[in-house]
Amino acid sequence: MARIVVLGGAESGVGAAVLAKTKGFDVFLSDNGNIAAKYLEQLQKWEIPFEQGGHTEALILNADEVVKSPGIPDSAPMVRKLIDQGTPIISEIEFAGRYDSAKKICITGSNGKTTTTSLIYYLLQQAGLNVGLGGNIGKSYAFQVATEQHDYYVLEISSFQLDNVYSFRPDIAIITNITPDHLDRYDHNLENYVKAKFRITRNLRPEDCFIFDSDDEITVGHLSRIILHAKMLPFSQQQEVPQGAFLRDQKIVVRYEESESEIYLKELALGGKHNIYNSMAAALAAKAVHIDDKTIRESLSSFQPIEHRLEPVLSIRDVLYINDSKATNIDSAWYALECQHRPVVWIVGGTDKGNDYSILDKLVREKVKAIVCLGVDNAKIHAAFEGIVGRDKMKDTLSAAEAVQAASAFAEAGDVVLLSPCCASFDLFKNYEDRGEQFKEAVRNL
Question: Is the domain covering 97-302 a CATH 3.40.1190.10 domain?
């Protein structure tokens, strides 16, 4: 009986362990930290041996194969030892794909992947298809393969999840865009990050589809250096394309094979330039699985915003509070600011990823009236924006409640308070979800 060791005891790792158990492997799970109660319960229910609070070398280094959770870098000591002795290391996505014959629509990118994934999942649901949602969103893909039966999966896949993918093949692969992000994980080399994203395309066949943003210079530049054997379906807001999606007379035009359909921009449920791109990608994916035009139009007009992504929370004294906690990089915050049409009190800050805030100068001048910094170290934010909004219109805070109170004091009727942090959350919060939940609770307590 082959031995599978799973490193990491959260959603991805526990899902992989359950799948390994159902497939008859000798499985063991190890987490260097503490495993959350809900995952301990699953491990016990499935009678999976595990350890937490440290790694026992003798129980790990004897693995025939290791499934590594995406949050664990290759530089981790135990991973280095496994690499040095030649033990194969794969991702949950790779492992689950071995046992799944469903059609897979897989989305990656620096920005927009969660919204695009959610849009496509909603479209397939509205079309009456038997579809699962997983990857970096929803339930573990591996857990669903072990316990459920779907005809389609819509999977959001991060670069970290793609790092240990080798044979996995989507039927439809989507790259929303590529901007510098997570470079600390890729030796501060953008090309390494780009190559990680493009691993989603490595096994595409001629009958498969590749959907991509042809306005994105990094994506197009990398495409010019590789050969893909797939149907190419670009989407663009700058030029007409023979196959794919583009803008014409305030409408999205979708061309797929011999058909052409149109969707009015004013009918889209999600506003902003970035969501036009997301809607284009989703419409193309829907066409590729033969969903009819009426269902596509109706779905794109009835979709509800996802949690923590430009999520309206409450309007208090005619000040609208928006939770965009998932905006953890410069580009995400740029899109969030770009789509605002009211004066903005901007809550920004956290764990900096080497951000170049100058990209936001023009939008801050045009749209932002005050800035609330929510982070342990806000020096870069002050240096970037004090000269634009003024020192008296900036305030440092160390909690969501304090930030909301400060933003409320700056805001006047007709304004927007926008939490779009531009940074990771780990200096003050467990993750971006925790940051968003604390923000919403603080708004409700105003």
Answer: yes
pLDDT tens, 383-405?
A: 999 999 999 999 999 999 999 99
What tokens appear for 357 in the block?
Answer: 């805030």
Distance, CA of 313 to CA of 307 (rounded, Å): 10
CATH code of 3-90, in short, is: 3.40.50.720
Q: What are phi and psi of 327, to 5 degrees?
A: -75, 90
Q: Facing residues of 134 across strands?
A: 155
What is this structure's pTM? 0.79
One-character DSSP codes across 387-415 = HHH-GGGEEEESSHHHHHHHHHHH--TT-
pLDDT in tens, 297-348: 999 999 987 788 888 899 999 999 999 998 888 878 888 898 888 999 999 9
CATH code of domain 311-444 = 3.90.190.20
Is 406 in contact with 430 (CB distance < 8 Å)? no
In 10 A of CB 188, how many CB atoms? 11
- Beta-bridge partner residues of 172: 105, 209
Domain(s) of CATH 3.40.1190.10: residues in the chain: 97-302
CATH 3.90.190.20 residue ranges for the chain: 311-444
Which residues of the chain carry a pLDDT beneath 50? Answer: none
